[in-house]
Amino acid sequence: MGKPGRTLIAAILWVSVFFAYPAFSAKDITAEGFPVKSYKGAGKPPPSIEDKVREKKKTELLQEMGQNGKAKNPDMWFSEGMKFYSGDGVDTDYDQAFDYWHTAAESNYPDAQHGLGILYHKGRGTQKNVPLAIDFFKKAAAQGHKDSFYQIGTIYFNGDEGVAQDSKKAFEYFSGGAKAGDLNCMFALGMMHYQGAGTEKDYAAAMKMWQTAAEKGHAEAQYNLGTMYEGGTGTAKNLETAKYWYEKAANKKHAGAMGALKDIGKPAQ
Fold this sequence. Notes:
Blueprint: H1 8-13, H2 28-31, H3 49-64, H4 74-86, H5 94-105, H6 110-122, H7 130-142, H8 146-158, H9 167-179, H10 183-195, H11 203-215, H12 219-231, H13 239-250, H14 255-263
Helix pairs in contact: 4-5, 5-6, 6-7, 7-8, 8-9, 9-10, 10-11, 11-12, 12-13, 13-14
C-alpha cells in the first residue's frame, strides 16, 4: 500500500512560504518563494552612489508619511523591503527589510505583516520571536493573506519557541487557508485527515482535499492521490488512475512520483 504519510515531514515541517509559492523544497529559495542570497549585513563597504540614492528615496518616503506616522505609500515601502530581503539589485540586508516592512505594516498592509511574520519567525533582521510572528501572520490572514494561514498552521502543528504544539489549532488554520483557496493548506489538511491529527482519521476527507489541490497542479497532492489509488486506500484500487496522478507529479519533477512510475504494478519485494 502507498504511504502518503511519508510526505508529511516535507509538507508541514517546512514553514516559510511567501505569496503562495511552492513550500516543499528543502531549499530556502523555493520555500519562501523568492531567492535568498547570502546575508552581507556585516563589514559593508562605504556607501556607493546607488546606496546614497536609496537613502535619499527612503528619506523622501519618510517625508511623505502622514502626521499619524503611517506610510502614505505602503506598497512602495513593501517593495523596497523586498529588494533588500531577496537581494534584488542590492546586497541582502534583513535589517533594512525589517525597517521598510515595519513601516508598511503600520498602515495595515498585509504583505508587509506577512513579511514581518517571516522575519520574526526566522530571526532575520530582528530577534526570533515566534509568538510575535504569529500575531503578524494573524493580522495578514484577517485581511485574506492565504499564506499566513499556512504559516500559523505549520507553527502550531510542529510547535516552536514559546508556542506549544497544538494539532487542533493547526487544523483550524489549515482549514481557514483551504477555504480561502490556498493549495498548501489543502494539502496539509489532507495529511491531518489521513493521520487523524487534530481531527478524526478520515481517508475520504483526505482524498477530497488532495483531489482539489491536485486538480490545481499541486505536485505533492498528485503524488499522494497516486499512492491512494495504487494501494486501494480510502478508494477502490485503480492502477491506471494511480499512474495518471503519478505522471502529473512526475512532470513537475517530483522524485517520489518518478520512482513510483517505475515500480507501479510490480509485485512487492
